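Justification of computing resources. Each target in the renewal requires a structure prediction run like the one illustrated here; the chain below, 273 residues long, is used simply to show the kind of job we budget for.
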Amino acid sequence: MANSGPVQVIAVTGGKGGVGKSNVSINLSIQLAEMGRRVMLLDADLGLANIDVLLGITSKRNIADVISGECTLKEILVDGPKGIKVVPASSGTQKMVSLNSLEHAGMINAFSELSNDLDVLVIDTAAGISEGVVSFLRASQEVIVVVCDEPTSITDSYALIKLLNRDYGMYRFRVLANMVKTQEEGRHLYSKLAHVTERFLDVALQYVGSIPFDETVKKAVQRQRAVSDVYPRSKAALAYRSLAQKADSWPLPSSPKGHLEFFVERLVQTTSS
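Resulting structure tokens:
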């Protein structure tokens, strides 16, 4: 069935690598699909693909082939668990890491051809604050910043939020604590980040909960499967279900923001109808 409302676009990011962004992106996508949403997962770590490895899927073509004009976005989609569609990235391609702003814009606009078959686009961004990461985050409606219990995780997340706020006027961020031993630890991580951002920046952070440290996540990764798929009753999978339920209730945008966005014509249609 064709969808006429806006597509929800959720970017998952973090200041540093190793915070579990890709696992969050995969499991959020699967849980949203379990709720009946039509979900696409974009591996936006363009030069170091992760998603296909974590899910054990192979793709003949990837986003690099779309950018070079060899095929369309629709032609590279791969089926993932629970009916999600995966947009694979290329691995070990330096050219993909240094795309210019025009190439980024072309890629973001290319998604418009898929908007009729889609309710949610989840974007797994690369680590750091490169121009490419920023361009994906600005083109999204929701940004989930993943933090974990490492000193550099909080400082790097703050640096990312500061850059997006001061240079690009972004002010609303959702924060997810990952691999926590207790729920209190998650709230403590959030309060550390909130304390420093409230002091120096004009931003609105919202805590969206935590994902517990869970051995089944490691087992699932070793099997190249998602924990929500193979251990659906595990602590981590249940926490991902709770995150998906929250994400599903976030309000959809009612109008374009005035800069490069995913599915912008869908927003224009919505406001004019």
